[in-house]
User: Fold AB hydrolase-1 domain-containing protein from Chenopodium quinoa.
Amino acid sequence: MAFPATIRFTPLKFPVQFQLISPKSSQSTLFSKTLNFKHFRVNASTSVSSSNVSVANKPSTLKKNDYWQWKFSDKSINIYYEEHEKEGSQPSKNMLMIPTISDVSTMEEWNLVVSEILEQDVDKNFEVTLVDWPGLGNSDRPKLDYTADVMEKFLADLINSPVSPVFKPGNDLVVVGGGHAATMTVLAAKKGLVKPAAIIAVAPTWAGPLPIVFGRDTNMESRYGLLRGTLRAPALGWMMYNVLVSNENAIQSQYKSHVYADPANVTPEIVQSRYALTKKEGARYVPAAFLTGLLDPVKSREEFLDIFASMEGNIPVLVVSTSGAPKRSKAEMEALRGAKGVTKFVEVPGALLPQEEYPKAVAEEIQKFLLEI
Assistant:
């Protein structure tokens, strides 16, 4: 999700708001400790996302959970997925739900949306697949050089490979994604790498925390590289990661500050669930890339609007914005209101993870849209 934070690069001093956890272009996380390094100092205090319902509440329609082996470079990476199904009398609707890309990214954020959709539409035959990104959730976390191109290739292989758990003959797959995942799907569709029947973009974002605040000039890019290298380092990297991300106070602060609209929805259980993800081997590598902008699908609002415009007349697109999103993230979402290529724009309660905090509202908008297209 994202983090309001104060980052100081010596000798420069910048008060900042930046996102480290979710792909939302202006999310923030506060860090309550100070780290001193030769070239920079970080003051911060974190924030993440939560739900007012136990994360242990799984949809009752689970058909299968397993690992799919994604072949990338010379590696075979185990990708965790779940299949949920509700049988009905009408033709099947196939959906892929992919989580936001963040420090604590997990398919759990879609659990209650799946429950709402499959349990309410009793006459429809739905098949929904949830997938964790490589390097996140319950998938393998190898030490790769994670970039937006790597994640885009994974998405294309996931949808197109005949041995993938989501592969279906024809183009009847509806892809539902949050944050950066939504924007990556639209970009992949523009490039012709995927051709879903529809795209549902929930709180779509495109900019990582540091680049949106400090820009991308040569000087700053070199500092991003230093930070990224530090986070990936064997000893110092874990120390820094433990301060910025992998501690319960930081996660709770993130969720309460802006990832959720209502701090009362942040439960000890959800904090523990997300904290456990940060303790897995290899947990630092994707966050190191996300924080420093390597997972940004595009580099400007103009590009952001352009990729959505390319969907006009090709693929129906639903954009789900939120009423309580942080200012910067909200501005990017609002830029899509009435924009070319956006078939329908709606707003629901919530901040950065409405699908987890207000699953019923998100599920209702998805259901309405599927009936309209």
Observations:
- Residues 2-54 have pLDDT under 50 and may be disordered.
